Write a sequence for this structure.
């Protein structure tokens, strides 16, 4: 059986591991001078999102989806290419309510996409993980660890309800684009086979009298 100190170490370790994963992805931001495409939103472009639902380790279920939208416009080379307000969807990757023996609630979220001109602009690196208050009250330690990680998402919108985690509607978080996203929809497939006219060819008048 894991004692109070063991729960403390487990909760801190789980959160720090998740923070470390996101910290690495944040540091991998696309260099504006090395854009991989033209007339597009490059992969790894940072985006600011707002969560449009109440979520929580006790309230949410693993695999459930939730609404979100683009909180600020996406600007590339000084030009606004995607307006704020574009709606999208996130997913609850893991949700576990607080249990007995001081076990903290757990919640991991991910952004999946926002819709731009009827097409999904896929997202990544918004995965957020938080553990609730365990038997010996580790919340302050977790908050300090998050602050030290230099993550842009912070913990805005998170609060504790007993040992469970709650994410309020209106929480703002950062994510990144998962791949290059053309701003203009692709044109018709140039390799498509041409239409074949099934109508018979007109008779040659010169041969009709033969």
């Amino acid at each position: 059986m894991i004692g109070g100190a063991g729960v403390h170490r487990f909760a801190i370790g789980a959160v720090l591991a998740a923070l470390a994963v996101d910290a690495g992805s944040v540091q991998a931001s696309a260099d504006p001078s090395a854009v991989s495409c033209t007339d597009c939103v490059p992969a790894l472009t940072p985006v600011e999102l707002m969560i449009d639902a109440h979520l929580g380790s006790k309230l949410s279920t693993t695999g459930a989806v939730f609404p979100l939208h683009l909180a600020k416009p996406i600007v590339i080379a000084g030009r606004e290419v995607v307006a704020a307000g574009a709606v999208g969807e996130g997913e609850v990757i893991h949700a576990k309510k607080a249990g007995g023996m001081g076990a903290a609630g757990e919640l991991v979220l991910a952004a999946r996409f926002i819709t731009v001109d009827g097409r999904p602009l896929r997202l990544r690196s918004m995965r957020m993980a938080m553990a609730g208050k365990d038997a010996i009250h580790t919340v302050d330690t977790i908050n300090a660890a998050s602050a030290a990680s230099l993550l842009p998402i912070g913990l805005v919108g998170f609060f504790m309800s007993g040992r469970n985690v709650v994410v309020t509607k209106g929480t703002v978080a950062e994510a990144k684009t998962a791949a290059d996203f053309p701003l203009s929809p692709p044109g018709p497939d140039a390799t498509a086979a041409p239409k074949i006219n099934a109508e018979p060819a007109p008779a040659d008048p010169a041969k009709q009298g033969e």
Residues 116 and 189 are 21 Å apart (CA to CA). The chain has three helices and 14 strands. Residues 4-29+41-182 form a domain with the Lipocalin fold (CATH 2.40.128). Confidence is low (pLDDT under 50) at residues 4-31, 134-156.
